[in-house]
Amino acid sequence: MNKPIISIKLSSKNYAGLVNLGNRVAASLTGNLNFMTPLPTILALQTAITDVVNAIAVWGPRGNRGGHADLLDLRQKALTLAQMLKSLSQYVQNTAQTAAGSNYVLMASIITSGGYQLANTRTPQGILQKVQGFHNFVSRKLNPNEVKLKWKKPLNTATSGNVKSYKVLRGTTTDVTAAIEVAITTKGSFTDTNTTATAVVWTYWVIAYNTNGAGVISDAVTVAVLGA
Question: Is the model's pTM score more than 0.70?
Fold first, then answer.
């Protein structure tokens, strides 16, 4: 699994959310042997929570709000609580990492015991599908003995940077098992050149690669190329 990271997505203006998170963290850290010296202290956190609760009451419900000074006081106290929760999250993260080392399962367990939630881990890409739109690109700028191939990333690519490279295969028949590797590129195109004096017929395939290895091989593209 990926290294577990704490996620706090609350705005300092989400007063009720901050109070709920604060109460959960305070309850989780109290008596927790994983976190013997929380900083800020649990007492300081509970005081900050109480300050926000009281400020919410003074500000009042919708339709019966307090004055502008009451709102400013609430915002300041909520900001203080948010900063305290952020500092505590760093303490929990660092303490868990020190205790667990590279055991990420244990690290995640220690972190969540402190009342914090983990950021969502990325879903593994899995095997890539065929590249899209694989074709022979015709252009007057190409020499007669050149062939330019173009394609787009596989349809199921989760992120733009997921494809690490493309392997281009070339064969003199339509049997891919007899083809040879002629290029590895990070681009969506490849230009091949016939350096012989005679015309040839080449068949190409492209395979996308990611951290899981080779994807699904593309359909074949067969091109007649003149000699040099």
Answer: no
